[in-house]
Amino acid sequence: MVAVLLYTLIVASLVTAVQIYRAYQSALGNLEQRFTEIENSYLPSLAAGLWSVDMPRIDTLLDGIAKIPDVGRLRLRGELNDAWERQHPEHLQILLERDFKIVYREGDDAYEIGVLHVELMAKDIHARMWETAQSIAITTSVSLLMSALFVLFVFRRWIGRHLEKTASYVQQLELNNLEQELFLDRPKSDERDELDLVVYAINSMRSRIYDDMRKRDILDTELALYREQLEQLVAERTADLQLKTKLLERKSEELVLQNRELDAYAHTVAHDLKQPVTNLMGASNLLNADNLELSAEKNRMLLMSIQQSSIKMHTIIDSLLLLARVRKDENLILEKISLEHTAREACQRMSALAIEKGAQIRFSGHWPRVMANEQWTEEVWVNYLSNAIKYGGVRPQIEIGVTDLANGFVKCWVKDSGAGLSIEQQEQLFKTFVQFGHSSADGHGLGLSIVQRIVYKLGGEVGYDTATPSGSVFWFTLRSA
């Protein structure tokens, strides 16, 4: 019914629009006659009045033109720049306008002595068109609507009620009342129509189902005992296999994880500690050389190199210890903490690096309390801020904030202004010993791996989004307090 009525309204609208458009075009054609009337009836008299400078005659002619229907404004300009103007008080919008050259003819000579500008206003024609549109729309809509209602009545009387009865029969059909057939209260005919075919198909299906149910009952009785024994045996074996499978999968995952972490430890010690140790050995050998005299500036540079290498070794060892502590701490107690406090503590720890890189850090939005561990949450902020400062471009502009999620969690994020990461780089994030931009920043590839472990321990998730228009957004989630 809705489809028929909607289709009727669409057709009525289209027919009405076509009729209104044709009426509008006809009205515009009638308006052209106004210009013809002015050109034929008034222009010769205006030319004579301008030639003889007969002011009363000119005013009378202009008043006459102004009284012609649909004329909104007149402007008459003579050859001596003298001007006359008439305007209808309700003239607001121009529908058509035209300029008429006023030519005075004397014998074979013609003299252009002025220009008459005529504007036809849209008010009257719009009012007439609106009345016409209403009449057309009402007539067309009522006619088509009555036709549609008649069609719906016919459909309801001869088809709809039988379909409802058929649907009701099918809905109430159950396995315990398959003996009752479907009959429709309609005149019998030798020729079958679509409703008769539907009734025949439903009754045939009911009969076949009834026969199949009787056969199935016999088979079910014979198989009942065997099924119970088999189900019990399968359940016992399945439970045993599932338990053993889960234990094996857990052990396998633990072994894979432990092997990966052992490889990580070995790789870190062998790779990341090699450079600072080499620097320490080289600088110490130069300082201990007996036959080599170094300047005070050179000695200071070597000592600074030793200090920087020691700091880097200390940072690597701290990261490894934190990674090991996160792995071993299984019974972590969560408490209500202030996200803003942990974030500001992390900013304080990163202040020296931020000053060195010229980074600016801005806090955004509100900062709720969450269920987490204060020290570990601060470590997550430190790692994210460290990456943002290092890889955020020249004089990084960093924004950090928190967004509420609908599932009872909050989303903590750090947004930088760097170049962002490619799709291949994004796929390698949060894996141990993955580092981007070796030439521009110092790192040992453990930061995001530690972040992932910490956040998983706290019951949240980590991720990466591409910022708009450029940059990166690293985020993690925590449960709201």
From TrEMBL:
Catalytic activity: ATP + protein L-histidine = ADP + protein N-phospho-L-histidine
Enzyme Commission code(s) on record: 2.7.13.3
Source superkingdom: Bacteria
Alphabetical list of InterPro entries matching this protein: BphY/WalK/GraS-like, HATPase_C_sf, HATPase_dom, His_kinase_dom, HisK_dim/P_dom, HisK_dim/P_sf, Sensor_dom, Sig_transdc_His_kin-like_C
Enzyme class: transferase
Domain Histidine kinase per the UniProt entry, residue ranges: 268-481
Transmembrane segments: 136-155
Keywords: Kinase, Membrane, Phosphoprotein, Transferase, Transmembrane, Transmembrane helix
Name of the protein: histidine kinase
Species this protein is from: Undibacterium macrobrachii
